[in-house]
Task: structure prediction
Amino acid sequence: MLGLALGDAFGAPYEGGILERALWSMLGTSNGKRRWTDDTQMTIDVIESLLACRCVDQNDLAHRFARSYRWSRGYGPGAAKVLKRIRRGEAWESAAVAVFPQGSFGNGGAMRAPAVGLFFAENSDADIARATRDVAAITHAHPLASEGAALIALATALACSGADNNEMLHRLSQCAESREYLDRLTKARAWLEEGEVVAPRQVAAELGNGIAAIESCVTAVYAALAFRNYSFDALLEFTVSLRGDVDTIAAMASAIWGADRGADQLPRERLEQLERRDDLERLAGSLAEAVGFREGR
Ligand code: R7I
Ligand code: MG
Ligand code: MG
Result:
């Protein structure tokens, strides 16, 4: 969770084109701290909801998402409209398909999925995928959005359990349903087996670097696994050089990386610059405790 917030806050200044960057240069700091964006806000909402309800409660989630919405956190345009509809009293089921008829295929469901992977880490792959799709559905009902979200949640859960790259790619491929994701996972697996980190330009061209889930989820998985044995800063530098949707690719990759390496491997100087770091650490602690209690550990 802390990895996700760091990737988000430190990736955000590099997201998108000239206009987005200019806007974030004005919004990106508060009281000298690095602000995080919608990626972290929705992650906080998911964790608070899971801790309060002890299960996926879609109505509770929808209301938390809607209450937390602030334009200044850089939400995707479709998600912003869905959340404003829910805030006005519309049921999330209809709001979710009001903007895009099949629901959004953006990566907004995947960016909050690591939280679900952590909470359900000890459950079966199928249960993790099901819970994640339910959490995504409120704003991201499109099959490619929920599939990407399930892959990111599962990658985070598997990283927690110490699975190696081979095992991870195998389990992720079993969870994938569409040709689009399977082909990208096969490519990532071949690159990881070769050993050398592939140039960011090639990764962006072949796995994607965009705001669509299909253009960013496997990219994040690849980055996290390729940099497993490197520092957090090396991973961050790589995700920045991918360009495109940097905050979200960095957030998802850093969440998986953090679940694998542990909080003590995150750079202290960057954590000190993070907005509301204490609150995030407290919430992460509550989540860890809840997962431990649940599993009787
Ligand atoms: O997916 P979403 O929440 O955006 C998340 C991104 C992350 O990068 C955050 O950091 C934040 O910057 O935004 O937002 P959506 O608006 O649901 O989806 C993102 C974009 O994908 C939309 O604004 C559309 O441009 C596109 N898109 C679609 N276009 C056509 N048809 C998503 N779904 C569709 C669709 O069905
Ligand atoms: Mg964002
Ligand atoms: Mg983004």
